[in-house]
Amino acid sequence: GDICIWAHLRIIEQNPAPVITQPGPVVVGYCERHRHDVLPYLSPVHSPLGCTAIYMRKEGITGSIASISPCIAKKEEHKVTGLIEYNITYNGLLHYLEEKGIALPAEESGFDHPDAGPGSLFPLPGGLQENLEFFLGNQLHIEKAEGSSVFKYLTQYAKTEKEFLPDVFDVVSCGNGCLIGTGCKKEQNIYKLSWQKEKGR
Questions:
Q1: What does the pLDDT look like over 91-115, one tens digit per residue?
Q2: Dihedral of CA 132/134/137/143: which sign?
Q3: Hey, how many other C-beta atoms are within 10 angstroms of the C-beta on 144?
Q4: pLDDT in tens, 49-96
Q5: Pairing between strand 142-146 and 86-89?
Q6: Which one-letter DSSP state was computed for residue 69?
Q7: DSSP one-letter string for 32-44
């Protein structure tokens, strides 16, 4: 997430034209098939996983990369970008561990609570907006849409004169942000995510 925040800040600084950010694979696929008129507005910045894969390659990692996320649609993203070879959902991983009788340790380790940068908010509802406002103040007009309404708003966006478009239109196809995707842990919900978000501040 931190790399994505940095990249979006650079994009906005260099080209202050309206931009649609955080377009996950579902939104990108929809625009490529049905909304060609908004393609010029899509941010060129990859997803956090894509950015991480690029960073890993620059650091010399040459083996296959697997992503672990709550998003089943990442499989399509990985196929298109070629940056990551395997997509593993949280739910799929937990199911595999249970099926194989593998128990995760009950005690915490040094890896359980790493220091989180501002990018940890990126996949949460309004996370990108919070980061942009943290770094840039309230100088940008930012709108966001989540869930199935995204597609209706993309149609409205395409039909709106450029002068009225927000500087940033932050869209995610999952209703409560990326971390409550179709492959998340079954007991995950927006209240737990909000608690984690507040605890990490």
A1: 888 889 989 999 877 776 665 555 5
A2: positive
A3: 20
A4: 888 899 999 999 999 999 888 888 888 888 988 999 999 988 888 889
A5: unpaired
A6: E
A7: HHH-GGGGGGB--
